[in-house]
Amino acid sequence: MELLKISLILPILCIFSFADGGSIGVNYGRIANNLPSAVKVVELMKYQGINRVKVYDTDRAVLKALSGSGIKVVVNLPNELLSNTARRPSFANAWVLRNVVAYHPSTTIEAIAIGNEVFVDTHNTTRYLIAAMKNIHQALVKYNLHDTIKVSSPVALSALQNSYPSSVGSFRSDLIEPVFKPMLEFLRQTGSSLMVNVYPFFAYESNADVISLDYALFRQNPGMVDAGNGLRYFSLFDAQIDAVFAAMSALKYDDVKITVTETGWPSKGDSNEVGASMENAAAYNGNLVRRVLTGGGTPLRPHEDLTVYLFALFNENKKFGPTSERNFGLFYPNEKKVYNIPFTAEGLKSYRDDHSPDHSPATGGEQRVSTGSSNGQTWCVASGQAGKDKLQAGLDYACGEGGADCHPIQPGSTCFDPNSLEAHASYAFNSYYQKKGRVIGTCYFGGAGYIVSQQPKYGKCEFPTGY
């Protein structure tokens, strides 16, 4: 998991149609010393109606326990094996024989995840990814499994260079030629989907003052129109996904699908982890299940149902990091639910998120997330179309409570000219945005701000690039 950058979804439906919905799975992590046996875990999943699972290795006990269960499985080739897999086709063949052929089809392996969030791996394994994917695929061809078992690699949203608004989503420029173009071509040729890890929680946690909780939790909200594509978004989740779709479209790969391989919300966190609570976790995951199983894609691809894997099956007590990292589980190690949500269409019939709408005063009930480039400089400027009232309110906030450096726009100073509300608001908005480290949501200002990638300049006035 990684700090994520953006987005939005479809309104919560009151009338359900379960005929052609998407699919819900779970991530079965095991960084803990108190979990039930694999046999008991498989029994738990079957009892709960969970028919898809993703694991982070190819543990023999787990794959044997899944044998004959009918549960579809995504296995993982860890990052540390990418180098050998890429360099030696014989290693890839042996790995597939030992970890896939030995169990399939009794254990219904449907996909192999090659690495996990490789682009942020500190061991610099990105250069091995494409060759490793191809060698594993060729091994599947050798054993005649390539039609039933797909190969992909989960990416974090930090792989995006631009992510707001969704319509301008693009991949990091340094990854396009060496990684994304060959990867997407491989996925197209093999009929596989791009695996993406999506965590609205991290965006909300960092920017709770500007992101409505309703927007993050799939609750009713007025939505926001993406000026680039004219689509209205109602949740952070869908906008994040559509930013990836837009990035794929920019490279002419509109036909490649997405599988959400991780998403979730923690039921507990440290005091500074805003939004980490049992109520919010139940709302996010419960409403997400409803959103997926009732069918339909994103605003950009409305007819493509989603397959989504919740993170994670259990609270894992040996995970490093803040308290939230150990509390993403749907179940305690004693197999009791952390909170009560359904996993099936039948269970949805009696499910209800009773919490009343909670519109953030900072956003006035609107949801918009702004983010800069993950690999380049950006600036925040004011939109003249926002209207005088919004521009003035944003300017007052930035120069007052927001702590922006507004001295340069005072009479006689360098940036006083042009003496217009839009120009002064732009300078103040950008000062606030840069002081906040250009993080998600800090170029919102009630919908009056937006991000640009070229440095604004008015006469002698140059906008700062950071503090």
From TrEMBL:
UniProt membrane topology term: Lipid-anchor; GPI-anchor
Gene3D superfamilies: 1.20.58.1040, Glycosidases
Annotated signal sequence range: 1-21
InterPro entries named in the record: GH (IPR017853), Glyco_hydro_17 (IPR000490), Glyco_hydro_17_plant (IPR044965), X8 (IPR012946)
Chain spans, region Disordered: 350-375
EC number: 3.2.1.39
Family to which the UniProt record says this protein belongs: Belongs to the glycosyl hydrolase 17 family.
Protein name according to UniProt: glucan endo-1,3-beta-D-glucosidase
Native source organism of the sequence: Forsythia ovata
